[in-house]
Amino acid sequence: MRFVIITGLSGAGKSQAVKSFEDLGYFCVDNLPPKLIPKFADLCFQSQGKIEKVALVIDIRGGIFFDDLVEVLKDLEVGDYSHEILFLEASDEVLIKRFKETRRNHPLAPRGLVSVGINEERKKLGQIKSMADQIINTSDLKPKELKEKIREIYQDHQNDHRMLINILSFGFKYGIPLDSDLVFDVRFLPNPFYIESLRSHTGKDEQVQNYVLKFEDTKTFIQKLEDMADFLIPNYVKEGKSQLVISIGCTGGKHRSVTIANSLYHSLTQKGHWVVINHRDIEKDREALRE
């Protein structure tokens, strides 16, 4: 199991870091009191593989509880709990600028100068920093660049370059899915709804699939759609995107969109991508008829 403790200076990017760990599939806990770490670690290590990656944010917000961190980390080593420490820091100038931009007070100087709080925090974190396995200075890093750095260090290399692709079929008359990244309209294809023997079936049924897929326009569209996916997916991964929602819509979300969505799903799965598929509106016409 990979057990990462994230700590460092206030304003150095720990909030952004924990979001990046969440995107990598880590079970994340923010601001856990240090004395609870051994019990939490014990639960995780005894989960029989159900929890394989954990990231804990421990920082000065813990107040008097934070002072226990050094001793707790030493106890973890004695207890043979394998763990890593990620320490985030930045220059005083950058930290002061970030606090001014967010109009937040420094936790160690709630009514005083931010620079005083930063100086005090550096003293408190000196020993922790010396124990760190990884130190990242975020002074010149944009959030996207920090995310990429964390991905390089902490991603499971067996799943490198894999992004969750969610393929979603829908009906335009029920609205475009709000979380769509890419939307494709297949209402230009012949509609099985107007074939009486196919109307009650869906794009999951072979007779509907055979009808939709027999047209040259359908074959051409599917080929172009797959070509576009092949081009876009590696570029989205390179950009740091962790999830992509591809929505395919027809009028009711029952026949054409379902057929095309299933076709794209099988194509991407065969190419080794991590893909899930959902048919949002496939049953809505049937529900309307029952009402």
Automatic annotation (TrEMBL):
Record-annotated RapZ-like N-terminal domain positions: 1-155
Any one Gene Ontology molecular-function term assigned to this protein's record: GTP binding
Stored Gene3D superfamilies: P-loop containing nucleotide triphosphate hydrolases
Top-rank lineage group of the source organism: Bacteria
Entry binding sites for ATP: 8-15
Record's keyword annotation contains GTP-binding: yes
UniProt name for this protein: RNase adapter RapZ
Domain RapZ C-terminal residues, every copy: 164-283
Entry keywords, A to Z: ATP-binding, GTP-binding, Nucleotide-binding
NCBIfam families referenced in this protein's UniProt entry, alphabetically: PRK05416.1 (NF003828)
Binding site for GTP: 59-62
